[in-house]
Amino acid sequence: MIQFKVPGTALELPKVWESLLEQNASGARVLSQEDFLKEFGQ
Known about the structure:
By secondary structure, the protein is mainly alpha-helical. Helices cover 38% and strands 0% of the residues.
């Protein structure tokens, strides 16, 4: 999980968290590793 423009660490969570985060977190997005790398690069 990341917050844009805030230093931090990206975490990989179990798949079960995906729908819970998208439904209950303000502005949450769930990205696959491929999508994450496309958007944020290395």
